[in-house]
Amino acid sequence: MKHLWTYLFVGILLTVPLWLHDQYFLHILITTGIFIIGAMSLNLLLGFTGQLSLGHIAFFGIGAYTSALTSLGFDIPIFGDFRIVHQPWHPVAGILLGTLVAGLFGYIVGKLSFKIRGAYFVIVTISFAEVVRLVALNWVDLTQGPLALSNIPPIGFNLPLIGEMVFWQKAPNYYLVLGLAFIAYVLIQRIVRSRMGRAMIALRENEPLATSVGIDVTRYLVFAAVAAAALAGAAGGLYAHYIRIIDPDIFLFIYTVTMVIMVVTGGKGTLAGPVVGGLIFGVLPVGLRAVAAPEVQWIVYGVVMILIVFFLPRGIVPAVSGWWHRKTGSAPAHVRPATSNSPSRWPDHHDSRNKAAHEAKLASAKMLSTRMEMKP
């Protein structure tokens, strides 16, 4: 039954341009899909490692600007008469380069900032996003500053026997976004279910315990930061070539908040959570415009978000999944979302030996954390 609903959902997504003739709503679905990709990348950090990054939009914007400048070309002066001249490249090369550059910045930020935790890490990520925004605003020779980069070429392909295809229409862009979202989903799924993904989840659940069993904290956190930044950069490049104009406002804090809302309301630490949360909070404002004034729209938007967080604190996907498994009597298959200070619950099929080993590890982790606190 679960697979039937999955196939039905995928079938609906594949046929949207065939029955949705309103181009504005199709545009909303395209932009929502791009931000869902960004939310999925943020979920890799927030949901599976427990690290809150409030500067994630910086990687999105870095990917957008890198891809746009690569496809437009530039000529900027450096140190007097010395100039850097770049001829325009194909938009696909721009998106690939934007993904790599965003991943590189993710590595730098992760390597420097994962030595700290909690509120300090949040402050570092916010500061990084603001620094990148100021660079985009003030480096006028390269980014055009507040005048924006315009006339960004759309994505296109030169296929054998078909010729050159340029995605001017919304339907091809919709399928392009849907394809990239599917690739991002599968990639994150493979990461989460791999050895590295299990290590990241262990760090999320109990970092001292994970450290005591030999997990390299910095290594896995930096890997998650690089993967999340690269996916956000790819989404940003796709956004730049679809909108075809970008300015420093792309780094606004509200976009990071939007991604966080998508992750938290949908269910952090689940693969489908950002997708569900993104669709709800991406389409909801558009649906309210036909029946409510602008002020009422934001009130309803906020009330819906508060109700979801209040009544479904773990998110929509874990709540619905838990209800379904209670109804059918089957065991949940998704990754359990992060819960702080939650007691370990062992199913009946675990024997006493496993339980004793687990309790011994918890005791050793508590001793380790106590020793760390006693250090000056």
Automatic annotation (TrEMBL):
Transmembrane segments annotated in the record for this chain: 24-45, 57-80, 92-110, 119-140, 174-192, 220-239, 245-264, 271-292, 298-317
What organism is this sequence from? Undibacterium arcticum
- Give yes or no: UniProt keyword Cell membrane: yes
Q: Disordered: where is this region?
A: 329-357
Q: Does the keyword Transmembrane apply?
A: yes
Q: What is this protein called?
A: Branched-chain amino acid ABC transporter permease
Keywords attached to this entry: Cell membrane, Membrane, Transmembrane, Transmembrane helix
Q: How does it sit in the membrane?
A: Multi-pass membrane protein
Q: Where does this polypeptide localize?
A: Cell membrane
Instruction: Please note every region of biased composition (Basic and acidic residues).
Output: 346-357
Which Pfam families does the record cross-reference, listed alphabetically? BPD_transp_2
